[in-house]
Automatic annotation (TrEMBL):
Keywords: NAD
Signal peptide annotation: none
Protein name from the UniProt record: NAD-dependent epimerase
Domain NAD(P)-binding: residue ranges: 2-310
Highest rank taxon of the organism: Bacteria
Key word Signal present: no
PANTHER family to which the protein is assigned, alphabetical: EPIMERASE-RELATED (PTHR43574)
Source organism of this protein record: Pontibacillus litoralis JSM 072002
Record bears the keyword NAD: yes
A Pfam match: GDP_Man_Dehyd
């Protein structure tokens, strides 16, 4: 298996699961500096201790290196999780997103087609739903009004995957992730930034005056969903070569409640600053999981209380914070 973005949050956890299941895993990552590289290096170190893991450093824009990788390792299944992440940063630096998320995706999917990959699973995002007023978000909803550059790049990935599936009979599965969180999570995501700020007595910003809601999805549930969809891919018929699934918890939570849970786990109060909604943000995300449940007979089960507790336990251990 090839896992792009293997040093990233979801990529690391999924690669580790695949290794425990006995797969040979080729990891591909450019280790960029969008956030602290130390966290990426620490994740990568845990993977490289397994002899079944092979790491190749490179970017998706390097088509020659990608072709060499496919020629050398001949992966049968590709899990594509590498991307330039972040909704707000995509407004500031759109070119980085076009290069990584569109050009890079085209390079990868072309390699999948040329080298006869059996199944491509690729990361999309709940952000493709834009300002959708229909709740919960369903994979049959129209998604032609993205409100951030990041969302537009992810929707383009879905369209290219469908096209390659149609033209070249490439089996592809799109994964619309809904606010994934948990141990080893990204430092720019809400739980990590809130915990940092609370411990440093710094104010935290609650956008939309604290009324934002997110369908938080615990990382173990995400990995289980990916793994089952990967296994199911072998059973797909020609009529279902391209599928898209929401990977969420089907249970939106107000951001202010997340802060309360973190305060409880840290035994420390937050200094809250209420601010207007930011450009590119949506007020609420909410995943309809009907197609996912039908496909793999599974839906995420980790409660937000349990998930936040696991994250803070890891956070304290990783940063050597004593109770």
């Amino acid at each position: 298996m090839l896992v792009t973005g293997c040093a990233g949050f979801i990529g690391f956890h999924t690669a580790r699961r695949l290794l425990t299941e006995g797969y040979q895993v080729i990891g591909y990552d450019n280790l960029n500096d969008y956030y602290d590289q130390t966290l990426k290096q620490d994740r990568l170190h845990l993977l490289t201790t397994n002899p079944s893991f092979h790491f190749v450093k490179g970017s998706l824009e390097n088509i020659e290196l990608l072709q060499h990788l496919f020629t050398t390792y001949k992966p049968k299944i590709v899990l594509h999780l590498a991307a330039q992440a972040g909704v707000r940063y995509s407004i500031e630096n759109p070119h980085a997103y076009v290069q990584s998320n569109i050009t890079g995706f085209m390079h990868l999917i072309e390699c999948c087609q040329l080298f006869n990959v059996q199944h491509l699973l690729y990361a999309s995002s709940s952000s493709v739903y834009g300002g959708n007023d229909k709740i919960p978000f369903c994979t049959t909803d129209r998604v032609d009004q993205p409100i951030s550059v990041y969302a537009a790049t992810k929707r383009s990935n879905e369209l290219f995957a469908y096209t390659y599936s149609h033209l070249h009979h490439l089996r592809a599965t799109g994964l619309r992730f809904f606010t994934v969180y948990g141990p080893w999570g990204r430092p720019d995501m809400a739980l990590y930034t809130f915990a940092n700020s609370i411990l440093k007595d710094e104010p935290i910003s609650l956008y939309n005056n604290g009324k934002m809601e997110r369908d938080f999805t615990y990382i173990d549930d995400v990995v289980e969903s990916i793994y089952r969809l990967m296994k199911k891919g072998h059973l797909q018929t020609r009529n279902t070569l391209h599928e898209i699934h929401n990977i969420g918890s089907n249970s939106p939570v107000q951001i202010e409640y997340i802060v309360q849970l973190i305060e409880r786990e840290l035994n420390k109060k937050a200094h809250k600053r209420y601010t207007p909604i930011q450009p590119g943000d949506v007020k609420r995300t909410y995943a309809n999981l009907q197609t996912l449940i039908q496909a793999i007979q599974y839906q995420p089960t980790t409660s937000i209380e349990e998930g936040v507790r696991h994250f803070i336990t890891w956070y304290k251990q990783y940063h050597n914070i004593l109770d």
